[in-house]
Sequence to fold (291 residues):
Amino acid sequence: MSTPQSLLTRLPLPHSPTATHASIPQIHLGLYLTSGKTTHNSTLHALRAGYRAFDSAQMYGNEAETGQAITSFLSSPENTAKLRREDIWFTSKLSSNRSYDGARASIQKSVNRCGLGYIDLFLLHSPYGGKAARLESWRAVEDAIDAGEVKVGGVSNFGVKHIRELLASKPRYIPAVNQIEVHPFNTRQSIVDECTKNGIIVEAYAPLARALRMKHPLVQELSKKYGCEPGQLLVRWSVQHGYVPLPKSEKQERIVGNGDVGGFNIDDGDMKKLDACDEYLVTDWDPVDCP
Fold:
C-alpha cells in the first residue's frame, strides 16, 4: 500500500491534551550530539529544506541554539512561506528523573533556554531513577502542560514495564509518544506493540542505525532497486511503519535527502525482509529494562 509522505505530513496524536497539537510532523531533525554553530546551521539547513520539527534535549546542551536558529529564520527574508512559531514543533527532554519540584523547575528552565515561549513536546528522557522519580517527574510534565509551558508530554526509552507502570498510576495525561531506538536492525517489536495497543506514537531515534549498517547487503540491494540512498531507505521504512523518525545529519545534502522520501514506496515483501534484519543492534544506551 502506498504511503504518501512529505515533510508536511503529520500523524494524529490520540493522547494530545492540546487541541492545537492534535497531530505531529512525521519527520523531525535529530540534534543529538550537535552543539553551538553546528546546531544552529543544521537547524537552518533543515528549515530551508522544509522541516518543521526539531528534536533537542537538556542532555544535548543545544536547546538555546536550536531555539535561536528557529527564531532567526522565522523573522528572516528566507521565511518565504511566512511560517509562524505555531508552525514549528520543538521537542526537549528531562535529563534525569527526580523529585516533583526538581523536575518542574528543570522544565521551566528548558522553556526559558529555548526562547520559543513554550515547548511543543517534552519527554522524560529515560526511565532511570526508579518508580517514584518517574511518576513524580511525569506529574511535573502534567503540571507544565496545564501551565501552558508544554503542549504535549511523552516518554523516551521506556520499556513495556515502564509504560504499564505509568498507565497503572492513572495519570491525568497519557504519554502521547515513546521515543525509542528503532530501525530494521532493532525493531523493538514488544515495545512497539505495547505503544500501539495504548495509542502511543512511536518516535524512532537513530533511524539510520548511526550509519552502522549502510553497507548491509539488503540495504544496498534495496537502495539500488528503489533508486534511493541507504539513509532514505531506512527513513522510508520508519515512515511506512507509522513511526516518527528523527534522522540526524550535519550535512546540508544529507538533511535534504533524509527528508525527501516521498518518491518511492517499499513493497510489502521488502518491508518484511527489512523487518527480518532485527539483531537487537543497540547503537547507544539501552535503558528499556532498567528497574
